[in-house]
Amino acid sequence: MDSITVIPGDGIGPEVVECALEVLDALDAGLSIDVLDHVHADRYRREGQALSEADLSRISASSAVLLGAVGRPDVEETGYVRDVLLRLRISFDLYANYRPVRLMHDRLSPLRDPARRMLDCAIVRENTEGLYSGIGGNLRASSPQEVAIDADVNTWHGVSRILDFAFSTARREVCLVDKANAVRAGGRLWQECWRHAAERHPGTATRHLYIDAAAMKLVTEPDRFDVIVASNSYGDILSDLAAALAGGIGVAPSASLNPQTGFGLFEPVHGSAPDIAGKGVANPFACLLTTALLIRHLGHEAEAAAIDAAVAGSIAAGRVTPDLGGSLSTRQVTQAVLASL
Ligand code: NAI
Ligand code: MG
């Protein structure tokens, strides 16, 4: 039996995870569930670490993690969030961040007028290197002579493996997004790895766009995209743009995967939303669509499709939380989804 470790986390994390657990229970998918509800900001404050070695070994014994969200305004940001998210990413080498974006109803799209433009693509973002690798520093800080350098780290190994993953998920095309015309060293490496990767996957069409043009085309021709592959920073930016086109972070799922080991960390794109936490209005769809990704990854295609369809059905019927223009609470939306399962 596959087992899932669940980290509800902070803010609206536990609220949306509760909904996902009820839906999983209703589907009776034969998964065993280990909830780490002690991993949160209070523990980080008390013990200086939210995720212990014992937690990591419980996680290792499972097939995947479902995480709600971590972060609280009264707890120092980078230390805590790094402690949980980066340790999971690094411990399990979750180098591929997979973020599908599908417009489930044209009512959610800012592009609905005048033409209907559907969107059904995935952003594959390199998750372990690039501009976010933390190498760099400041010289003569806080003076008019200050120099700040953040190194953009790109390795042949890291780039090749994310390109291969992108091809493995494509239905018809992979579009590489970079800025090889301006960022020369890394651009050259990505372009060369791209040529080799395309040769390894001859059955898939390829396209190349610079990041600026890609941002424009996501808005003007969203239906042309299938899989977009990009570095850590470009993938971060494009996935927020794509998520906004599909109705916002209330419906945006995400997975960080290691395709070799099969292990994955699944979490909604949104954070812990302290501004609405405890009010019972958090949109559970992002967490439900994330749960569908998780169980699809474990081979439960029928149950995953049932969750996707139940969410799409709720959206079509207008049974949604305020962020999507509705008036239902998290509980009422959960009930609607459970009823249509
Ligand atoms: P956020 O995603 O938590 O919230 C941004 C805005 O979207 C807020 O107005 C919020 O109310 C709204 N929102 C988010 N999720 C929603 C949902 N399910 N339903 C309805 N509205 C929703 O991002 P923010 O405010 O930048 O960060 C808050 C905390 O979350 C911080 O501590 C941050 O570090 C953490 N964070 C954690 C992430 C994670 O666990 N993966 C990811 C992003 C942020
Ligand atoms: Mg982001």
UniProtKB/TrEMBL annotation:
Keyword Zinc-finger attached: no
Domain Isopropylmalate dehydrogenase-like: 3-337
Cofactor(s) listed: Mg(2+); Mn(2+)
Coiled-coil regions listed: none
Pfam entry (one): Iso_dh
Keyword line: Manganese, Metal-binding, NAD, Oxidoreductase
Gene3D superfamilies the UniProt entry points to: Isopropylmalate Dehydrogenase
UniProt KW Zinc-finger keyword: no
SUPFAM superfamilies from the UniProt entry: Isocitrate/Isopropylmalate dehydrogenase-like
Domain of life: Bacteria
PANTHER family named in the record: D-MALATE DEHYDROGENASE [DECARBOXYLATING]
Protein name: 3-isopropylmalate dehydrogenase
Organism encoding this protein: Streptomyces rubradiris (Streptomyces achromogenes subsp. rubradiris)
